[in-house]
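Key result, reporting period 2: structure in, sequence out.
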């Protein structure tokens, strides 16, 4: 009897050590089914984030270009906290091209990698002054010819300053595109090409915002909040993160988690709180 009574206790202990079962494997999916599911994800993300927007503060194409270059290897929040002083002193390419490099380094130091970024900002500002009459060009081939400007930066500027559709593949977009089963590629340009075949061109810019918003708020790199994810039934990677709803809620970030957003000057329809200036943090 004692041995029999001990058995349930041992079973419970063994069960406690056993990892939680993952979601059952999905059946193989045809490409047509994947495209239908992908487009439904986009529609549902549009309902979750109707206010999705670029999370860099800017008032013109030059400010957006500079802010996007500064955003490499740092957060949009830190860029937004850095650019007010920068744009007050350098509102135009001509002003920035004439800046003393050491002074510019000090202005952008909070954004990190300030020496390399200073070189890029001085180079692209001089190029805009000398080759484009002080105006940011609205063509991809012109933008990527500027120092420090790659395809991702160019697509950000084209989509949000000129209304030219583009897919912005940053780390969040690439991660979610793979988790959603839209691509298996790691190279950003290959990810962009794969995703471009799934969605109509008219959706590219807003799709980018929605996916990046979701990646920053819910589908995090290390521990996605699967249990609080509004599109969990459509995700083939469900179960990679926390599936308990209450625990998952605690992982939500920015306005989804009741915290300030990344912009000091967010759009009027943003439901969260603005971020604080650098001096206030």
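The corresponding designed sequence is given below.
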């Amino acid at each position: 009897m004692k041995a029999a009574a001990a058995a349930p206790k041992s079973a419970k202990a063994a069960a406690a050590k056993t990892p939680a079962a993952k979601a059952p494997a999905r059946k193989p999916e045809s490409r047509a089914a994947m495209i239908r599911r992908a487009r439904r994800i986009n529609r549902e993300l549009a309902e979750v984030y109707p206010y999705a927007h670029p999370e860099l503060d800017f008032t013109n194409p030059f400010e957006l270009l500079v802010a996007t270059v500064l955003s490499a290897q740092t957060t949009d929040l830190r860029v937004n906290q850095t650019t007010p002083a920068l744009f007050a002193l350098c509102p135009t390419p001509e002003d920035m091209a004439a800046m003393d490099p050491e002074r510019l380094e000090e202005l952008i130091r909070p954004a990190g990698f300030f020496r390399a970024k200073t070189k890029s900002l001085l180079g692209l500002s001089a190029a805009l002054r000398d080759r484009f009459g002080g105006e940011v060009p609205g063509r991809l081939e012109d933008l990527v010819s500027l120092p420090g400007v790659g395809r991702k930066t160019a697509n950000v500027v084209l989509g949000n300053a000129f209304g030219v559709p583009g897919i912005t593949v940053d780390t969040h977009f690439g991660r979610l595109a793979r988790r959603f089963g839209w691509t298996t590629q790691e190279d950003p340009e290959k990810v962009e090409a794969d995703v471009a075949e799934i969605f109509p061109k008219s959706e590219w810019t807003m799709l980018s915002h929605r996916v990046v918003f979701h990646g920053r708020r819910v589908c995090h790199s290390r521990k996605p909040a699967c249990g609080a994810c509004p599109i969990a039934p459509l995700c083939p990677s469900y179960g990679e993160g926390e599936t308990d709803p209450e625990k998952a809620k605690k992982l939500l970030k920015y306005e989804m988690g009741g915290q300030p957003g990344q912009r000091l000057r967010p759009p009027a329809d943003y439901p969260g709180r603005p971020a604080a200036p650098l001096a206030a943090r």
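The radius of gyration is 23 Å. DSSP finds 13 helices and no strands in the chain. This case is discussed further under Risks and Mitigation.
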